[in-house]
């Protein structure tokens, strides 16, 4: 808690617009996560869980890009395809996090502890949530950063 005469620290806590942008980012990401998980379930009917996690991530990533570009970040001055490539680069880092957590939980951790209730779906939801902050920072400072 800040004392009445203290300045707030720099960053999102000090800037209501930055807080709002992060809330919008979470809403866009939440929507994309739902697309991600539902498409993983559907894809899981025709491909392995491991492959479905990757393909579903691409579906969710495309939804996240469209929502972030439209509602979260200011125009960067780049063409949409350039932003999408930059967005994909940030997400290449995130998919590694998602895959390791999702598959690690579903194939190693949950069986070891006897957790079986929708284990693949729970593992995937946890995996999708893991890169939230790193992705926000990557998209803010790289994907949608203003062109110099």
UniProtKB/TrEMBL annotation:
Q: Per the annotation, which location comes first and is thus the protein's main one?
A: membrane
* Annotated transmembrane regions: 20-39, 51-72, 84-109
Q: Which parts of the sequence belong to the GtrA/DPMS transmembrane domain? A: 25-144
In terms of InterPro entries, this protein maps to: GtrA_CellWall_Glycosyl, GtrA_DPMS_TM
Q: Does the record bear NADP in its keywords?
A: no
Q: Name one GO biological process term.
A: polysaccharide biosynthetic process
Q: What membrane topology term does the record carry? A: Multi-pass membrane protein
| Localization annotation | Membrane
Q: Which UniProt keywords apply?
A: Membrane, Transmembrane, Transmembrane helix
GO cellular component assignments? plasma membrane
Fetch the PANTHER family from UniProt: PROPHAGE BACTOPRENOL-LINKED GLUCOSE TRANSLOCASE HOMOLOG
Q: Which family does it belong to?
A: Belongs to the GtrA family.
Q: What is this protein called?
A: GtrA/DPMS transmembrane domain-containing protein
Please give the organism. Answer: Rhodoplanes roseus
